[in-house]
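Many introductory courses stop at the sequence. We go one step further.
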Amino acid sequence: MIIKSTFLGAHALPVEFKEKRSEYIDLLVNRLIPVIADEGLADYNDVFCDRGFFTVEETDRILEAGAKRGLRPKIHANELDFSGGIQVGVKHNALSVDHLECTGDDEIKCLLDSDTMPTLLPSTAFFLKIHYPPARKMIDAGLPVALASDFNPGSSPSGKMSFVCTLACLYLGMSPEEAINASTLNSAYAMGVMDEAGSFVKGKQANLFITKKLPSLASLPYSFGSDLIESVMLNGEFQ
């Protein structure tokens, strides 16, 4: 399988740094990021830029430090508020900005002028009982969107992408075709692997889910909770 790793050292302040915020930023910038980059431990450098976590100014400094070491930025942003995270991510040419529950006209315009992929995580909104990102508004404005699970023990303890597609159709206003495209081709772009994965094209890796016989593509999000996959192919070989 294709695996990409991301250094999210700037997710939240460790307990021992609660009263020493600037010291932790210095630790990230001057010690941790250089080691991560020099030892090839990550492909991307990520920051949670949102209310109560890392500010735009802190994010700016952390992303710049990673970029100088060859780590392309990613951003977790605008989950809890209009934090400015989308804008600072675009400023640094982030490959993706993730979450985006709080996205308005200014954020959409900023993304339209960029190569940054907006990546939506609807199972987080489902689990935390917060409002969903405005996918329909974003798509109608001309933006592509990717979908991801945000699989983690704190806010989205499920990695089931078929359920993510269901939520996208039910609560984000996306069609089944848009949800599948967002989960495959656009997600491949968001992970920097669009040239080798994400679509059924000659020359790309034959990484495929083979489902049971279905009456239509819409059956995938419609039959949520059902196990529709019969087999999996990786690099042209059934597993």
